[in-house]
């Protein structure tokens, strides 16, 4: 641990040539993307792609607000907040290891602790996309029939408590209802999970949920919302103590993601 630099906005420029760091100004970047499920896959892929884009001249001034949805996700919230949203990704190949610091996540929220903040980030006119890495089970597909599993306890809870949800569909529904009432268009719902035609699955399952919650809201999202399909065929290996030690030896930070 001796000699390691604790990663933060204040220490970013001290890393010198030892590791690639964000060269764009992260201060005040609007959070055009709200991402639900800030796990290793998101941190090693979508957040990296936006970091790449932000280094390009004329890039749209967007950043990511990450949402940790589950009670046990408080740890990733704590780690990222302590590092000002910064973290290190390590790319390993036969040519060698390469570390870089990712700066595209500028805020992290823990939904169980502050649901109102999550609703308002999604309902903000700045938000254009809500992206999801919530695993296959997060879409509530009945594996026997392919239909929406409206009997799932998460769904039953969120239908009974629409303003105090616990699952991703409930959060999206509440935020979209606020946008509709404020005269704002729906955000794009971007599934990033490894499902065939994941956007179509997300649309079908989410609209089924909305029809049970509020048919008028479902009609509005069906008419004006977007659920693009995305190809996802990657994995992110779990970070081990060996990887952390290697990053420390390179004078980078302890890290939450690798590709």
From TrEMBL:
Database matches in Pfam families: Mannitol_dh
Family annotation (Gene3D superfamilies): NAD(P)-binding Rossmann-like Domain
Mannitol dehydrogenase N-terminal domain boundaries: 32-244
Alphabetized UniProt keyword annotations: Oxidoreductase
Protein name (Swiss-Prot/TrEMBL): Mannitol dehydrogenase N-terminal domain-containing protein
């Amino acid at each position: 641990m001796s000699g390691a630099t604790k990663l933060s906005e204040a220490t970013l420029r001290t890393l010198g040539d030892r590791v690639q760091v964000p060269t764009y100004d992260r201060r005040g970047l609007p959070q055009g993307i709200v991402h639900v499920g800030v796990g290793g896959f998101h941190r090693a892929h979508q957040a990296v792609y936006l970091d790449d884009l932000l280094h390009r001249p004329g890039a749209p001034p967007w950043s990511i607000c990450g949402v940790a949805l589950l009670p046990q996700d408080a740890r990733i919230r704590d780690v990222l907040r302590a590092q000002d949203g910064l973290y290190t990704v390590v790319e390993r190949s036969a040519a060698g290891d390469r570390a870089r610091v990712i700066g595209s996540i500028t805020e992290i929220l823990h939904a169980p602790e502050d649901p109102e903040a999550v609703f308002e980030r999604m309902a903000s006119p700045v938000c254009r996309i809500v992206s999801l890495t919530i695993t296959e089970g997060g879409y509530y597909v009945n594996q026997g029939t392919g239909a929406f599993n409206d009997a799932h306890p998460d769904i039953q809870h969120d239908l009974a408590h629409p303003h105090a949800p616990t699952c991703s569909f409930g959060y999206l529904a509440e935020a979209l209802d606020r946008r509709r009432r404020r005269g704002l268009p729906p955000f794009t719902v971007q599934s990033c999970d490894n499902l065939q035609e994941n956007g179509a699955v997300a649309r079908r399952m989410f609209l089924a949920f909305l029809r049970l919650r509020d048919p008028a809201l479902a009609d509005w999202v069906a008419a004006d919302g977007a659920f693009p399909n995305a190809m996802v065929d990657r994995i992110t290996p779990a970070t081990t103590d060996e990887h952390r030690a290697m990053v420390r030896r390179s004078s980078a930070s302890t890290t939450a993601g690798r590709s």
